[in-house]
Amino acid sequence: MLLGPSGCGKSTMLRMIAGLTDITSGSLEFDGRQVNALEPRDRRIAFVFQSYALYPHMTVRANIAFPLLMNRFRWYHHLPVANSLMRRRFLRDPAVNAKVEEVAAMMELTDHLDRRPRTLSGGQRQRVAVARALVREPALYLLDEPLSNLDAKLRTQMRAEIAALYHRVRKTFVYVTHDQVEAMTMGTRIIVLNDGTIQQYGTPKEIYDRPANTFVARFIGSPPMNLIPCTPTGDTLTTPGGPLPLRAPTPDPVLLGVRAEKVTLSTSPGGLRARIVVVEHLGAETVIGFNLGDSRDLHYARMPGDVTFTPDTTCRADLDLNGASWFAPETGARLDPLL
pTM for the full model? Predict the structure, then answer.
């Protein structure tokens, strides 16, 4: 899973893997075999584009079969009459039809094989694009933000379908997205990118629990990780909301990183001084935005859905520091090696 904001280099990296963009330096290897000099067609890859890239004049059957057709293509098939005869003969081939129908059944497209893309919904078009990739049985699947054109309900449905597909075919998927929910729910390994640089590589849990820097801490998670400035004062840390009875990992100012689910707001004594800014009721849970002390930095708490806080009221914030993260304010780097 390649994850990062728009313009960070995700699609460029995917195109380099596919061979559509030249690599200026370094080595690209598939299973220990260098493929830098191989043409895209020789890399045994399948590419699912963000825009679907379906052929509007072809039926769903012909769109799915097209990669198999190209495997048999010869120079003389460019001639108009030869091209038409070749395509008709090819689509009547029992082996081709069996393969297309097998993949169509897997993607629930059997009833749509004789329709054209313009008559399909967005989710159905996406299934056709994925089916066209599947029919080749490649060694590697490349997916470039394939769900970005779908509405929220269809995205949720297609996330589940692509995840189930991965477990069925048991091949390598390289999936590009800027949506951290997609990355966390679908990815087995995530590469977080920013400005063309890899910020962190690991499992979704590793990246969520132990972000390598403040960029990853704020980018991963919804709401993002709270970053609270702290100044060491004797055996305590001074924060905008008051002191924390905790020795700092270094004698210098630090940023304390705490996830929203580790923050509890109440009117009981103790904790840090806080003021409610915004309350978002999401059904089973409520996300509350608050300021600490006189600071205008917005922090978040994730609490049960039945809490009764209202904006512009004061409260106390209790932080569960079990598994908290520490960062250097100047560089944003994680300070765990110093603990």
Answer: 0.85
